[in-house]
Amino acid sequence: xxxxxxxxxxxxxxxxxxxxxxxxxxxxxxxxxxxxxxxxxxxxxxxxxxxxxxxxxxxxxxxxxxxxxxxxxxxxxxxxxxxxxxxxxxxxxxxxxxxxxxxxxxxxxxxxxxxxxxxxxxxxxxxxxxxxxxxxxxxxxxxxxxxxxxxxxxxxxxxxxxxxxxxxxxxxxxxxxxxxxxxxxxxxxxxxxxxxxxxxxxxxxxxxxxxxxxxxxxxxxxxxxxxxxxxxxxxxxxxxxxxxxxxxxxxxxxxxxxxxxxxxxxxxxxxxxxxxxxxxxxxxxxxxxxxxxxxxxxxxxxxxxxxxxxx
Amino acid sequence: xxxxxxxxxxxxxxxxxxxxxxxxxxxxxxxxxxxxxxxxxxxxxxxxxxxxxxxxxxxxxxxxxxxxxxxxxxxxxxxxxxxxxxxxxxxxxxxxxxxxxxxxxxxxxxxxxxxxxxxxxxxxxxxxxxxxxxxxxxxxxxxxxxxxxxxxxxxxxxxxxxxxxxxxxxxxxxxxxxxxxxxxxxxxxxxxxxxxxxxxxxxxxxxxxxxxxxxxxxxxxxxxxxxxxxxxxxxxxxxxxxxxxxxxxxxxxxxxxxxxxxxxxxxxxxxxxxxxxxxxxxxxxxxxxxxxxxxxxxxxxxxxxxxxx
Lengths: 311, 309
Prior knowledge:
heterodimer; A: mainly alpha; MetI-like fold; 12 helices; B: mainly alpha; 75% helix; flat
């Protein structure tokens, strides 16, 4: 190998390395755009703090969420005795109850969304990829469910199985997951199907097919990453709507049951006592607002980052 | 157009059937019956009541009876109220819910589209950020927070408006103010965001640039060209939104103690009043289907590119 050839190779390698460092995928671009969105970044930080607090807070807090302080019924927020958010009408520490409520609401939001994601992606991708009669049938089914008064069915479901779940909080929460997740998957299925169909006809898929890439590899390398964008955005926007749906049920007395609590239940209790104990409404309402704010800002930011033409 | 309408109406029949069947069998799967009272009644009488409502028959047979009555336009008697049919209950409650829902929708469309267009015309300026900040707040505060807070502030602290209890027969405007605002707020927010996004997209279109280039004054371009195209996504949103609004009124009816149909439904479901639950589900399913159809037809009127074939 001559010296000049060696030099050229080194140069090429250096260039390639530089190119590798500088190479930016679609996702890198999206990430950069997301990091520039201050509201989304701040929301992500706040949300992480809230989640951390909800998970770890009850372990270290001196009071337990169901302990009744008989001498401290309905006291306003005070630093004395660590009742920083006061107590509720039964004398339970509102701060630790709020952390528990956040835990339940966040868990319901994330898990029910995952249920809907799983059903929706499988349903939509199958319909879109197989096409024809199968597609027609599967999407007609989705259309039918769309015409359902969804909240009515969740209410019926909750009422039907209410007696089964009294005294069994785990089962009760599972039912909420299933009931909400089972109706939230419809939009996800539609989005994924539409994306899949649009992608199937794209030139780069055709090129990959012409080059002899196996179908599974095409789906993994080309279809999934391109479907992922809208799906991720929709997931972030579904979580708050699921949290809202659960709170809605809890507000009507059909969600989680005492002594367990959720944001909706705390708000419902607070609304009953607001005339004499306004803090029992104020703090849960604020927590709900901040949580939903964060999810919505992150969702908006993600949408702008992944699909900047819609900005 | 006519063929489109016929086909959509034909598709609606199996859709309704599936919904009716699902609701029917779900309700019957619930443990308990409408005649489990706190004060037990003699088993003979209970059996006779059950026989009168066909509750002693297999569920499939009950479904047959129900469909037969339904085909005659009969929703059946309530199983909880002695002297009321489902039709009576709906006739009492629905006007309240409909007035609430439609006023809220009207308010939301009016304010939302004005705010959204305003923000779009001042994109990335202070007014835009202010409107979008407000909209984000509106989306993030659920009605079961705004409702109690509004009634606390306007009803209790300021004493301006009644907070609860619509007296039957005395439906006054002041009773409806807070419920309507509570129900409309999230939709004002959603509609203004939607309107802003579609308005911005339309403003970038070539034919709008052409209109400006030809020297047309701004208000003519906006009212004659931009708004007409920008309102399209709003129209397709209105179908599902109206449905959501009608169901959303369940919470508002509870907060403000309004005798609407949402409250009747929740009560009915809790007390196993089968016929009332079925009646309300059918009513709402039919409403949702019709609103979606109306939205689609309206879309076609506004957008000449849409063809019904």
